[in-house]
Amino acid sequence: MFNYKTPILYVLTAILLLTGYAPINSSFKGYEEISIADIENSAAYDERSVMFSDISYGDNEHQRYDIYLPINRDQRKTKVLILLHGGSWMHGDKLNLNDMVSSMMERMPNVAIVNMNYTLASADNFAFPTQFHDIGKVIDHVTALSGSFDVMPEFGIIGRSSGGHLGLMYDSVFDTEDRVKFVTSIAGPTDFTDPYLNRADNFELLFELLVDPEAYGTNPLESLSPIYNINIFTSPRLLIYGQDDKKVPLTNGENYLEALQRAGVDSHLKEFDAGHSNAWNDEQWDEAFLQIEKGVRLYLN
Question: How far is CA 200 from CA 15, 17, 110, in A?
Fold first, then answer.
């Protein structure tokens, strides 16, 4: 049967272009892959740097995550960074962030890293709030296995593009137990009421196709914008944006920073003379990782 949502969702991809989509093939030097069958047998991988791939946290084909556990980890101090890929909420894969995983392993060798997939929006699945719930499910899953993983269940989130939006919203709206200690948004949209983001004539119609109408009221643009969801649960923020980003404008970062600071939330903004994050050069990424490393030392220690 024809579903009217399918062709419109393809159009939405072309209009928004909030992808951050750049497939990468990376190796993980020094990390041994362990069978998921041994996941609860910590003696099988104790005192080694190990990784588990495609751990299931739900029934959807996309509900999978990889975890990288450093050597000398300790449940009393080894905390966890969660990575969220971009892709306009409809595309992308954790494989796109393998280069980021490799860089973070080298720069931050004392944290565990989770690289997760989440349920992608389609004709049969709304993005919101499903993708927010998926983040919570991964946090619950890692927390339940924290004894086997030998990690402390406190988390930082790093999201690229649409993944940045997901991390910001999850922390402020869904993390009522304060398990997330800080969020880094790399070129993530923060204000869907911004005329630059909703300049397409049919933006609101297309956007509503991502939204479960039973979960949100009559103004989903505000309900799903991080700038309108700053509250007592909002953790410290690191915002990284390109000054010439044609997909998510720098003003989304600047205005959000001002709102966060007015609310007393510890926040920082780093700007690059560049476009969207999938076009940054090595020097810009080196600086971005340096800023993330500072955040890890400050908020996950």
Answer: 7, 12, 45
Beta strand pairing call for 112-116 and 32-33: unpaired
138: exposed, middle or buried (C-beta count within 10 Å: 0-12, 13-18, 19+)?
buried
Distance CA 251, CA 224 (A): 17
61 contacts: CB under 8 Å, gap ≥ 6: none
Which backbone phi and psi does 108 adopt, to 5 degrees?
Answer: -130, 70
pLDDT at 275: 87
Q: What is the DSSP letter of 42?
A: G
pLDDT beyond 70 at 247: yes
d(CA 96, CA 59): 22
| Separation of alpha carbons 16 and 20, rounded Å | 11
- pLDDT tens-digit map of 113-126: 999 999 999 888 99
Q: Tell me whether residue 107 is exposed, middle or buried, using C-beta atoms within 10 angstroms of its C-beta: 0 to 12, 13 to 18, 19 or more.
A: middle
- Which strands sit side by side in the sheet containing 32-33, from one edge to the other? 32-33, 50-56, 64-69, 112-116, 80-84, 155-160, 180-186, 237-242, 267-272
Q: Which amino acid is at 237?
A: R
Q: What is the pLDDT of residue 13?
A: 52
- What is the pTM for the complete model shown? 0.91
